[in-house]
Write a structure and sequence with these properties.
Elements lengths: L3 E12 L5 E12 L11 E6 L4 E4 L14 E3 L5 E6 L2 E6 L5 E5 L3 E5 L5 E5 L7 E8 L6 E9 L7 E4 L2 E7 L4 E7 L4 E6 L1 E2 L6 E3 L4 E6 L9 E5 L4 E6 L5 E4 L5 E9 L5 E9 L5 E5 L2 E7 L5 E9 L2 E8 L4
Antiparallel strand pairs: 1-2, 2-3, 3-4, 5-6, 6-7, 7-8, 9-10, 10-11, 11-12, 13-14, 14-15, 15-16, 17-19, 18-19, 19-20, 20-21, 22-23, 23-24, 24-25, 26-27, 27-28
């Protein structure tokens, strides 16, 4: 007898600036017991309502693939998204559904919040020293701002830091470090034993503070530190190894996922709210996967909820500080 299995996978979540909706990437299909293969990981742009329900799955010529990341960069009014589909850079109009190719064979690393600049590379993935390219996409055709070579770029999204500075993860002999560059190509700062990875980096321009994961092949790998660019001080923020985290805009609470070791040596994945001032914390879910995202006014948290091994979905819960 032929049976069917529904498959749904969500790999990106980003809130619209007014908190009325979210965007992401989704793969949704059905396989039968006669199928001899698992579908290739190819994802469509999706819009979610603020309650977590799917509003619309968009059809595009190309799909999102696993490259540096599945990152989407959304205009503040929600009208467009800059993202990578296939191996090309696109602007996607969320109102009309029209996709416009900006450039081909471009591996996107980070975009500025105002969608003025993008940083990425035309270099093939196998090339150890890649040419980093900064594009001004505020005009058409785009303008190449700067190109320079960087060795050992780790395939992960970068982080935009304001004042025309951005950070990206570099592999080194100890693990990783975050290299800070400006749009002239100057390496202005290096944060050792650190990495900026997918949904594991947060920058606050008001306090000039960057939150990131530690990684230097030590016992504190994947814990979270913060670095203040004004005081040049580094301090611990979350003292356990996390999979994904987000921080409220007042920097007073963290939401994060991590694996808890049980007495029988098994692991339980937990979603935790932690008050960063009182250090009190509360487990709020155990059905979570690795992406967490706080709403712009910090009253809701979106996370990917695991229904079964083949199916995950978006869940929205209220934020109550412990």
């Amino acid at each position: 007898m032929n049976t069917t299995t529904d498959i749904q996978d969500i790999v990106e979540l980003q809130w619209q600036a007014d908190g009325s909706a979210l965007y992401g990437f989704i793969q949704k299909t059905t396989i039968t017991s006669y199928d001899t293969y698992y579908p290739q990981a190819l994802y469509n742009i999706v819009k979610f309502n603020a309650d977590g329900s799917v509003q619309k799955i968009f059809s595009t010529d190309q799909k999102a693939i696993n490259d540096f990341s599945y990152s989407q960069y959304i205009a503040t009014d929600g009208s467009k998204i800059v993202t990578q589909l296939g191996i090309d850079l696109y602007e996607f109009n969320t109102n009309s559904g029209v996709q416009t190719k900006i450039t081909s064979q471009f591996h996107l690393i980070v975009a500025s919040p105002d969608l003025h600049f993008v940083v990425g590379s035309y270099s093939p993935a196998t090339r150890p020293i890649k040419t980093l390219t900064i594009l001004d996409i505020s005009q058409s055709p785009f303008r190449v701002v700067k190109e320079f070579d960087v060795a050992s770029i780790f395939p992960a999204p970068g982080v935009w830091l304001g004042d025309n500075n951005f950070g990206m993860t570099i592999t080194d002999s100890l693990g990783y470090h975050i290299a800070i560059f400006d749009t002239t190509g100057s390496n202005t700062l290096t944060i050792g034993g650190a990495k900026a990875t997918f949904h594991n980096t947060k920058y606050f321009p008001t306090t000039k503070t960057l939150y990131f994961q530690n990684f230097a092949n030590r016992v504190n790998d994947n814990t979270v530190d913060k670095y203040n660019f004004t005081t040049k001080q580094r301090a611990s923020a979350i003292g356990v190894s996390v999979e994904s985290f987000d921080i409220t805009k007042d920097e007073g609470m963290a939401a994060y996922t991590y694996y808890r070791l049980n007495t029988d040596s098994s692991y339980t994945r937990q979603l935790i709210f932690k008050n960063l001032e009182s250090l009190q914390e509360k487990v709020v879910a155990t059905d979570n996967l690795s992406i967490v995202s706080l709403s712009p006014n910090n009253d809701k948290l979106a996370y990917v909820q695991k229904r079964d091994v083949n199916f995950n979905q978006l869940s929205i819960i209220p934020v109550i500080r412990p």
